[in-house]
Amino acid sequence: MASLPKRIIKETERLVSDPVPGITAQPHEDNLRYFQVTIEGPQQSPYENGVFELELFLPDDYPMEAPKVRFLTKIYHPNIDRLGRICLDVLKTNWSPALQIRTVLLSVQALLASPNPNDPLANDVAEDWIRNEDEAIAKAREWTKLYAK
Amino acid sequence: MGNVPGKLENEGIARPNRSMSASAAQTSSGRNGTTASGARSQRTSSLVGNLLSSRRRSSSSEANGNGNPYKRKSTKDKEKTEERHVKQLIVKYNETVDGGFLAPFGSCGTDKLDYDTKVVKNLIIERRLAPFYTPLQDFDNSWSREEVIKIIEALPLHAPFNEKLETFEDIPIGDLTQSDIDHLIDKTLSRREQRRMRSKIFKARLYKKRIIWQERENERFLESKIEAKQSKLQSNPNLPSDDLKYAMYSNGSECPICFLYYPQPMNMSRCCLQPICSECFVQIKRADPHFPHDEEDPSKPRDEEKDPNMLTSEPTNCPYCATPDFGITYEAPTDRNVGLQGLAPSSYVHSKKDSLEEPVPHAPDRRGSLASTDRRVVTSDSLRPDWQVKLNKERMRLARRSANATAIHVSNQLVTPGHQASAGLTSTSTPRSNSNDHAVEFQRTPPAPLWSANATAAEIENHMIEQAIKLSLAEHERENSPNRR
């Protein structure tokens, strides 16, 4: 494997020395570009008290290309589909090389706090969300209890 | 077909070389318009129009295609251009500006360094873009002057990289001094495979060559350093003095994007005045041409089915504040004007005697944000002046592909006899010059106005595509008919 760019080494070090509250990111032993991530559901959101597992991969072109992030824990959210893929602007067109693993994960956490059913990835969930928000939130809460432990 | 370049240059379906500058195409389609439908000449700006008319112009246009960026290059020409480009990315120790170089250190590989080297080198010499400094992985403020100098002394010209890349294993590279690589290609393979193999061999060879070029430069650098050490009287003017090394690196800063440590001053974003090193700046470029809202969605039409004119590529955004049309400004250091268009790097003496007590760097006059058109600003786009050509080429490629797809589709319909009638081959344009007398046979239906006066652009364009398909089918039939002569 090609040597790891300084940026990734430093980011990893700083994630350990100065962790983000409610977020952990551990590089994989065999592949230092692959991270196991956990994100705590934000308070006062349907995901409160849940701990969600994600995977994060830094492609070869990182930081010129966005990291790839995916939920491993099942989650009921209009912008996250059944495969755990996330619809988030900073992971796609609005990626900037000045962003970091840290800021991306914070954005994901913020997405949990404010779902956006008008730009859905999981269409059925978004429809539920628009039709009956209370019910959808209750379901999200239920799923959090069921899967995000 | 007219001129088919030899052997492998003949890509995919043999097509005549065609030059596609919009203006050239316009004039020719204007010419066609006189004999055929006057309506066509009204729509010369249409992409499809350009495409079709230039196709019809066929090989005769090749002669005036010199210097035209849209001209299809032969594989060998492309290889030469690429090799030249890589050569320009080699750092030369004796080409310096204010202690930095004209080519990048290569911290993140050279694949992404597809910028225009000539433009960038000139900008650096003009002091409008920070030179490429050799970065430090880290900097420790507790380092003494001697330690800093020692560390800088030991820096190589290029980032070390993998000598044995797995991807290039088992690829014959032959004798690197020979430019001909045809004999390395397995002739028993299919044409497509041969082409693929050629490209692999070329890449492997170029990779190897790059290593050799870099090593050669590094050796030159080392030898001159050793020489300078041995003969203390006459130092090599191109090598930096100890004062210069210390002045540069003792007061550097970290680039917020690659996290590497560089001498000051850095480039500043034009909009929000954030620093960025040159190596990161040259890597920021427009995304490849894509359709707006490019989502991998199988339910949406595939690329071939979309309108090629919709392809876009937006200007880059500032990585820090997302202002569109990213650009930087650079203010060269006034206290170390060395290298090209400056003093000899070896003669640099730090003006301040008490360099231990580094004063707080004077705050430069803070400028506000500048427009991308300001003449002090260097935009991302200016480093890749060919972005528009690339976008147009991609559009044309797609247009060609979708035309081919439609042609296949239509030809499938044509073989069913029921459709014959509808395929009345109105030859609406001049047949492809001489020897094509057969074309007359295809004028089964009398020429009639093809669209009403108030037809929309889309309708006309559709019609033109249809006509082009018919013509190309007719041509195809002619070429394949056994009794053509």
From TrEMBL, chain A:
What top-tier enzyme class does this entry carry?
Answer: transferase
Supply the alphabetized keyword list: ATP-binding, Nucleotide-binding, Transferase, Ubl conjugation pathway
- UniProt xrefs under SMART domains: UBCc
Q: What protein name does the entry list?
A: E2 ubiquitin-conjugating enzyme
Q: Which domain of life is it from?
A: Eukaryota
So what family is this one in?
Belongs to the ubiquitin-conjugating enzyme family.
Give the EC number: 2.3.2.23
**Residues of the active site:** 87
Q: Taking every annotated instance into account, which residue ranges of this chain make up the domain UBC core?
A: 3-149
Asked if the keyword Chloroplast belongs to this entry, the reply reads no
Q: Which organism is it from?
A: Lachancea quebecensis
- Molecular functions per Gene Ontology: ATP binding; ubiquitin conjugating enzyme activity
Pfam families listed in its UniProt record: UQ_con
| InterPro entries referenced in this protein's UniProt entry, alphabetically | UBC, UBQ-conjugating_AS, UBQ-conjugating_enzyme/RWD
TrEMBL record, chain B:
**Ranges of Polar residues compositional bias?**
18-44, 423-437
* Basic and acidic residues bias (residue ranges): 290-308, 351-377
What InterPro entries is this protein classified in? Sip5/DA2 (IPR039301)
Positions of the UniProt region annotated as Disordered: 1-83, 290-318, 349-377, 417-439
This entry carries the following GO cellular component terms, namely: cytoplasm
Family, according to the entry, reads as follows: Belongs to the SIP5 family.
Name this protein carries in UniProt: LAQU0S02e00848g1_1
